[in-house]
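Worked example (supplementary).
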Amino acid sequence: MTRELLINKWLDNALNPEEFKAFQQLEDYEDLVKLDQSIKRFKAPEYNADQALEKTLQHLHSLKTKEYNWLKPFMRIAAILVIAFGLYFYIAGLDTNYQTEVAQQIKTVLPDDSQITLNSASTLSFNKRSWHKNRLVNLEGEAFFKVSKGSKFNVVTSAGIVSVLGTEFNVKQRENYFEVYCFEGSVGVETIDDTQVLKPGESFQIIDGIIQKINNETTQLPSWLSKESSFDDVPVYLVFEELTRQYNVFINSDQIEKTLLFNGTFTHTNLELALKSITIPLNLTYKIDNKQITILRD
Amino acid sequence: MSKAINDNVCSESIYSAIFKRYSTDLHDFLYYKFGENFNPKDKVQEAFIKLWENCSKVTPDKAKSFLFTVANNLMLNEHAHQKVVLKYQAIKPKHYTNENPEFIMQGNEYMDTLQRAIESLSDAQRTAFLMNRIEGKKHKEIAEILNISTKAVEKRIYGALKILKEQVEGLK
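After joint prediction of all chains, the assembly is encoded as:
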């Protein structure tokens, strides 16, 4: 066996007893052992795998909490959702509004299928979200209601509250003029100083502070729905006000007494015809200057 | 555990098993190759953290070569061909006393020469030689760790022994 082979086997700790004897016979055997023993003093510092593992795992766990920054984008999405939902509920919570200009009428349907026709220069609002708890409509101006059967239905105006159960009625609330006209079913009218129940054909008026309950003995639908305005003994200046709402004009009726009453109808489709139907029966004349109309005594 | 179930090392139990199995060898390898100046312990931890970060991409049977490659690269980046420093212990290791009753403590002159000689070996020679002589690893084990043939390991170790012997004999 060559020297190199012996040494290699020795290095691999693979010498059998016979080979070991031969190895010991090598002339530099002692030098080799001396070298080998000395080399062992260069041993690497003790490495404790268990301790190192524990330390590494601890480090990884601390990293994990840092690495959970997917939480950030998630939080962003959540924030957007919160804002979106907030906005949605805010908007859904807002009142639904309808507004008509002069000479304009709007037909609309409430969440319970009640039909509403809004006359000129009027505002109507209600809340869709609380509708099923509370059928509440705010009205400024004039509107005709055809209410489907169901729970209590309230129309709130500055002059009073009109509450009904499945009826058809007209509410007119203008300056110095409040009128509720019942066409079907029954209508309750509650003002600051009066509470009335109207049957079909009955109407309730507060004109210039004078409260009146009138039995018209007619259940025809309000005339304005067929593009006319009808009045029964109404001060003529209020009639002219209605005229300015139906036609985009300005009317000066300063020369006419406030007490002069009008009884009749004017059309919404022809200004001259409408003016004539008001002035002729009262022996008045008028002068048209562009959009400015002056009413004169005859 | 079958390979089909564990196609990565993301489970903590597999990760820990791999840690216990390879970390000491990795540490010793780094120490003998690069010396004590570059904190082999930290490099072991760094390599294992990298393994965890890439756990889904590394199969258990690839973990060893991954760890050795990563740790080696970490070392090379810092090491940049600086001198390898290895220190010998002032007192002889206890567990050799009983095994070798005729053990004779060599003088500082001898040890210093030996230290310089070891440091002058090539990285490949030194690593294989010290893992064999100090850690008692067989040629075959070292071949597995270093991913080279047994014959190559034998050559490196024998070559290293030859150089060291020549250097210390020059003392006489």
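Two points are worth noting when inspecting this output. Helices of chain B lie at 12-34, 40-53, 60-79, 95-99, 108-120, 123-133, 139-146, 150-169. Residues 95-169 of chain B form a domain with the Arc Repressor Mutant, subunit A fold (CATH 1.10.10.10).
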